[in-house]
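Throughout our pipeline, every protein is held as a single compact record rather than as scattered files. The record that follows is passed on verbatim for readers who wish to inspect the format:
___
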Amino acid sequence: MDLTQTLQIILAFVIGFSVVVAVIPPILKVARAKKLFDCPDFRKIHKQEIPQLGGIAIFGGLIFSATFLLEDHSFVSLKYIMLSIILLLGIGLKDDLIGVSPFKKFIFQFLTAVILIFFGNIHFTDLHGIFGWHHISAVFGVLLTLFTILYIINAFNLIDGIDGLASGLALVASLAFGIWFFLAGYMQYAIISIALAGSLLGFFLYNVFGRKNKLFMGDTGSLFVGLLIAILTVKFNEFNLNHANPWSLDSAPVISLAIVMVPLIDVLRVVVLRVINGKSPFYPDNNHIHHRLLALVPHHLTVTLIIISGNLFLILLAVLLHFLALDITIQFITILFAGITLSFIPSFIVRLSERKKNWNELQTWPD
């Protein structure tokens, strides 16, 4: 870690942020001219027509920053990462503009995961001792990586329901991974992470605080952003197998789980509730964590900040457990339990409020 590397990281963030802030107004102009809007309906929270091409801006900031700062010849996985991003960007853009079947989106997600695993050499090889498992077979490593990538992509896609939530959670994740990559000396992934963080911050400001210039990320952004977070998650765990590195973390799986916990638990919780209620796991509803919180705090930014604060709490808890040097399986179960518990608190409070309201109505009912 030297001055040159520090300047590279700062540049990665600044370039990503600046490009997004610069290109969003022209994107909005085109979207309005061509009437490319996300129209409100009975399932959506927003009440007006809003352009949803923010993913193009995030992609522009990321690609410009990464292309400027990364040396392709020394980063053999880069071309496969970029190819995968472009594939998901394309299918996401098509979905935002004219619609795409869930099956076709899944096929593209599967294809990108296969490209990354078999050509980009991005896959798990070790579980760091969770439940006594260390080195794993190639077949199991491929299947676990495939599941992880698909899960994280769809988790970020599905949690993109209110202003700033998906981008805010992805910003936290990219910063957390990026800081570690930088400190540990993995500059290529540090640059990608921090470039993504800068791009996401630029979008976040327009998405949350924009009035006339408001826009959504759309599937154009959420799919490839989720993909990148999945890639960073896998590489974070693999790089931490190098115990010669002074920044190596024995509890890397626990910390990475905490970093991406919120969208993962949200998807798991919603799917389980749908199955319990006899509905399809893909049935659309309003049971996401942000929907439950909106019933208590009807303000997007406040809800987003509450959920991001919960995410930060889980990360800090994971770091604390790491320094306490507890058994990694105990750490893993503790973080998982904490995440599940936090996810059900909003629904519990909503039900409690409804029962109290119903009780008060019964008390005031005329004899």
User: Anything to note?
Assistant: The chain has a mean pLDDT of 89. The first strand starts at residue 37 and ends at 38.
